[in-house]
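Closing statement on the zinc ion sub-project.
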Amino acid sequence: MKRLFFILTMSCALCAAALFAADRAFCKYCGSSSFGNLQQMLTSSCSKSPTGKHQPYQGAPRRFYLCSYCATESASFAQLVLSPCSKSPRKYHDAYEGTEKTFYICKECGFESHSFKQLVTSLCSKSPRKYHNPL
Ligand SMILES: [Zn+2]
Ligand SMILES: [Zn+2]
Ligand SMILES: [Zn+2]
């Protein structure tokens, strides 16, 4: 009886984890997605996060994740956010949380471009980070 209870608990934990993983709940700073639930994610410590706790990536799941500062693409979310970026203030690529669009617009000056890369790598006089900031 005890053994049966153990098996049931195990399989439920596994199915919850599978459901949670399907939501692609990544930490946007360390790329980790091995959390039982969102609360566990928000309360466990993250060595890469400025707040010391994991923070969820709030964008939609994508085929390729893009860095908001240099437009580097990666099919792996964790690989993107853990790789060094010379343009990012925190020195690692930051995953862009917006959706895939035909036109990208700078939220500081309204500059438009078909190319995400062109937008984030072109100088912007209004943006605090000196380059256009994609909406
Ligand atoms: Zn983290
Ligand atoms: Zn980057
Ligand atoms: Zn701009």
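The pocket of zinc ion (ligand 3) is lined by residues 106, 108-109, 111, 124, 126-127, 132 (CB under 6 Å). With this model delivered, the sub-project is considered complete and its resources will be redirected to Aim 3.
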